[in-house]
Amino acid sequence: MNPVAETIKVRFPHAFVRAAEFRGDLAVEVKREGLLDVAHYLREDPGMDYDYIVHVSSVDWLGEPVRFEVVWEVYSVIRRHRIRIKTRVPESDPVVESLTLLWKGAEFMEREVYDMMGIRFAHHPDLRRILMPDEYTEGYPLRKDFPLVGKGWRDTFEFIEGGSVTLDVGAHPDKARRSSDAPTPPVSPGGAGTRPSTPPAPGA
Amino acid sequence: MPTTPAQPPVFTQKKLPLLRTEELMLNMGPQHPSTHGVLKVVLELEGERIMKATPVMGFLHRGVEKLAEDGTYHQFIPHTDRLDYVCAMYNNFAYVRAVEKLLDLKVPERSEYLRTIVAEVQRIIGHLFWLGTQALDIGAMTVFFYTFREREFLLDWFDQLCGARLTTSWYRIGGVERDVSQDLIGQLRYFMKEFPPKIDEYNVLLEKNRIWIARTKGIAIISAEDALSFGLSGPTLRGSGVEYDLRKAEPYGAYDQVEWSVPIGVNGDTYDRYWIRIEELKESSKIITQCLDKLPEGPIMADVPQIVAPTKDRVFTNLESMIMQFKFFSVGFPMPKGEIYCGTEAHKGELGFYIVSNGEGKPYRLKIRAPSFIHMGAFDHMSRGYMIADVVTIFGTYDIVMGECDR
User: Fold this and answer.
1) pLDDT more than 70, % of chain A
2) For residue B323, pLDDT beyond 80
3) Is B354–A73 a contact, with Cβ atoms under 8 angstroms apart?
4) Which DSSP category does B301 fall into?
5) Are A17 and A113 members of one domain?
6) B15-28: buried (b, 16+ CB within 10 Å) or exposed (e) per residue?
7) Tens digit of pLDDT for each residue in B245-296?
């Protein structure tokens, strides 16, 4: 086992879950309760000296018992080694301690994780949405159950043949559809097509 | 090379008892020409001094990370062009390098050299673009025309290389899309001979220009410790005196085969970061010239049929290749299970890709570590106490491009 992972395992037996090395990247998974202690040790201990924050990320393992995984990757410019700290948070209580006090850059990166995955960071100085609009309430885009298409205004466009298009842009996409305006498309004999005009039968 | 020690600015304001003072909120952007994209900063002002600056981002958010989960690994390459649209080649490079690390794939040597050459050409383009626009934002217009003259030459070179000036998509997983011709090598050699005197030309306009010095010296100082803590990278970090360049720390491409050095600043102010970028232009030309001299012969794509798309002539003549091509572009190729992070030193800073693979042909999760985004995290810290006019300088000193920042 990697010496850094070994040290964490010995020093924090209650927090340590597992360590893995893949393609030279060291990843250590810790329990949510022990995260702050481990991170503090990695930041302050002269033997570790992880002073540079690389990124904060999150993974949605939809279908697993503990759904979300939050990832911090830090690097030591002096010692030239990097480590990935990971912790799991359940969907029912997606809260994890913020590491902004240890690495200042974590502030924006954790805001992005909150924005995209809906994981809340306790003791974060300014936990707001960062890339999506502040008033956005339709969920967290990078969750696996958030659809890739079909959440935009494109769905609300009503293309009516021969008529002008009227849009009620102030309403919610799902409520904007007015059944009175849109003529019901004639059902083709096959039942599958939604084209309003069926091609004329040969010889007709 | 500047030698005066770094001193954070101390601003005191006399409070007159009879005057009523009040904080002013000012929106800078989203349509300000210096933001290089669409970015809003809410400034809290006391007079003309910035007390607090809150960046409001996301105007260019296109959900690239979500899109990555829907396509194969190969299909994501054109998306990376649109991240930092000023320097598409380096984004391609950073991405394919991350995928190759996940695959544990070795790239042929000629390909490594070509990648290094083109990446450094892109770095020169990026720094020229930065120098021109930074000087333009501060008020020196001439530099813009000078730098864009050289940038045009190199963009035309890209055009001949891959058929596109900006959205290049020239890198491939396992190599590069096509080889350079002797004509192109000759053109690049000619440029590299002509280029160093032109750097002096820019410097004549700026180095001792009183306005330039007044607008950049002692502006947006950040200490080495803070810069590291904020995760700054690239010239923004090296300006504070931290020797951290991924090309040296974790060499890739052909960077360990050639002689070059990493310029390091002293004061951590805008002027030092300008000086570093000028020095990097010289270092990049050194790297390119040496790589052109050493350029080995050989294949440009790795010989791994599962990962590399078959060539067109084989697709049209060989049934297996045609099936392979169909599978390649519809299903993708199987990936090993695991997760990696791979950082690459783009001209703005460390551009990294964190990829989680569950063994399928698509990434399970792809996270982009965008230097522009992370630099904006330090904006409040670096702009406090300075004047409104310095906001433009600070935008410029990060070399932000909002396409990369918002992704």
Assistant:
1) 73
2) yes
3) yes
4) B
5) yes
6) eeeeeeeeeeeeeb
7) 888 888 888 888 888 888 998 888 888 888 899 999 999 988 999 988 888 8
pLDDT of A189 above 50? no
Contact state of A105 with B378 under an 8 Å Cβ cutoff: yes
Q: Are B155 and B165 in contact (CB under 8 A)?
A: yes
In this complex, the residue of A55, A104, A107 whose CB is nearest that of residue B226 is A104
Task: Write the pLDDT tens digit of every residue in A127-167.
Answer: 888 888 888 877 888 888 887 776 556 556 666 555 555 55
Q: Give the structural domain span for A176.
A: 147-198
pLDDT exceeds 60 at position B229: yes
ipTM over 0.90: no
DSSP letter, residue A33:
G
A-chain residues within 8 Å CB-CB of B343? 54
Looking at the partner chain, which of B66, B225, B230 has a beta carbon nearest the beta carbon of A148?
B66
In a domain, A142, yes or no: no
Inter-chain Cβ pairs, chain A and chain B, closer than 8 A? 99
Say which of B57, B228, B232 has its CB closest to residue A130.
B57
Q: How big is chain A, counted in residues?
A: 204
Alpha-carbon distance of B66 to B64, in angstroms, equals: 5
Q: Is residue A38 part of a domain?
A: yes
Tell me if B374 and A105 make a contact (CB, 8 A cut-off): yes
Would the CB atoms of A130 and B249 count as touching at under 8 Å? no
Return the ∠ at Cα B208 (arms to B203 and B209), rounded to 5°. 95
The answer to whether residue A12 sits within a structural domain is yes
